Amino acid sequence: MTHSRQFAKRDAVVVLLVASLLAGNLSAVGTAGRERVKRAVCLANLKQMAQAWLLYADDNDDKIVNGEAEYGTPGTCTTPAWGHHAKEKWWVGTDCHPSYQVGKNHPREVQIQAIRAGALFRYTGDENLYHCPAGIAGSVRTYSIVDAMNGLYRDGTRTGGSGVKVGETVLWVKKTTEIVIPGPAERLVLVDEGRVTPDSCGVHYLHPRWWDPPCVRHGAGTNVSFADGHGEHWKWEGAETITAGLAGIHQYEPTTPEGKRDLRRMQTAVWGRIGY
Question: How far does CA 266 lie from the centroid of its chain?
Fold first, then answer.
C-alpha cells in the first residue's frame, strides 16, 4: 500500500468523525465552535482530494490530471481532442452555471453528474468530498485546482506544450516529477473558493495582482492542500485582501505591504516563484 493510500484511509476516518459531529446538535458550542468543525471537515476534504490527485498520477506515469473544470454542456465531461489539454479528460465536467458570478447554479443533480463524470472521481468516490460545509448554498463543488497544476497557464508560464523552467522550478506542471524546487510540500494543488467556478483558480505570475478574487474563507483566510497531500489553513494579513475577496474583485492589485505579502504568498505557492 502506498503512503498516499494509507493517508487516504486515515483521513477518511477523520472526515467521518468530524462529519458526524457536524451532523449533530452543535448549538451548545456556539457559532465559533460550528465554524471550527466546518473548517476541520473542509480541511480533511482537501487533504483527501490532494491524495486522490496523487493516486491519479501514480496510475498515469506521474502525469497529473487536467486541472481545469470543463465549461461546456451541463452535467457532462468530455476529453479535449486539441489544445494544451489534448487527450486529457477534465478533472470535473461542466458543473458551473454561466452566471455563477451572480449566484446562479445548475440543479444539484446536474452538478453531481458532472463531478462523477470527471477524471478524478474514480479516486475520490464521493461527491461530498468536493464540498466545503461552509460553502455557498447551491454549489456542490467548492474546491478548485490551481492554474499551475496543469490548469490554465498564464503569461510567462508555458512554452510549447511544457511549463517554463526557471532553474529547477517548473512553473506550469504536467507531471509530479517536475515538482522539485520548491518541493511538493510547498506547491499548491487545491484551494477552497467557497463556490463552484469554471476553469482553474487563477493568479498572475508576471504581474503583481490577483487574477481571480482572493479566496476569503473560514475567518478571513482559506483552506488549501499541497502536492505532498497535506493541508493548511491560511490567514490573510491584509485588510484589503479580505475586502477584495469578499467583494469578488477580479484583477485586484494590492497597495499595502500586508496585501502585497498575501499576493506573493499565493503566487509563490502556485507557481513556485514570482515572475516580477
Answer: 12
